[in-house]
Amino acid sequence: MQYPLNLGGKYKRRKLAEFAASVKSMNYAEIKNVDVANGPGVRVSLFVSGCTHHCPGCFNPETWDFAYGTEFGEAEIEKTPEPMKQLGPKDRQGKFTACYTKKAQPDYKGTLKGGRSVVFEAKHTSGDRLEQSVVTDDQRKRLDRHMALGAECFVMVSFGFREFFKVPWAIFRAMKEHYGRKYIKPEDVQEYKVKYIGGVLRFL
Question: Global pTM?
């Protein structure tokens, strides 16, 4: 269903309300929290799923499907801020040297639809193995506590930005027992592989 964009006043509001009422759910393809490629300055970009234009040469034809991507309201997840202390003055570009003032916490925290908490780390390697030690002792203790309280905890692993895996924390923390060593390779965790479609990791 489409409505012309130049509708004005009450008619436009009524038609938009009719459209909103007809949509049972809406999906989004991607949210870019820091985007410098889609307009001047730094902005947040939200790419909503569904398009009936089907333009030739479209960069993301997979997003034409209204069911593509993640449903709004499926989860609320935020990047954990890391406290920093500025060590020197800013330069002409506004850059400065800083250091972390607190031991690293798990990278992401949030709430899944239904009320369950989710806490996870994101780790990347350009090699063919990921060491268990990439998760610090402090991060390990926090993930243990969250898991004990019932949160969904995992480590999102990237191998060369080509393959992605959602490894449950219970498996990652007991790597030696499961794999006989304190590192994992892509072939070890194929059952936890996550699809990467149109720039979006489908891990929920």
Answer: 0.60
